[in-house]
Amino acid sequence: EARLAARTIVSSPLVKTAVYGSDPNWGRIIAAVGRSGAEVVESKIDLYLGDICVVKGGRPLPFDKEGVVEVLRGSEVSIGLNLNLGTAPATAWGCDLS
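Request: output the structure for the sequence above.
Response:
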C-alpha cells in the first residue's frame, strides 16, 4: 500500500506542478493518494512537507505557508505520508516538471 501511494504521488503531474511552482497545495498530494488504489482510511492519514505537518489524522492543520514554500523551493523536497495502517515503509523518488 505504501509503495503504491508513494509511486502515485511522485508520478502525479499535479504534484509535480505544485512542487515546481512552490505551491503549498497539499490537496494535490492527498488526491494522488486517493486515486492510487492503495488502501486508505482518511481519518488516519498524516502528511508532512519537509518536517512541517500539514495533515494529522486526516484533518488539515494550520501551518506556516512560507515555511512550506521554502521546503518546496529546496533542491530536494521530502513529502512524508503515513497511512497509519501498518509498519511497511516505502520510498519513491521523482522530479518536478523542470
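The chain is about 35% helix and 15% strand.
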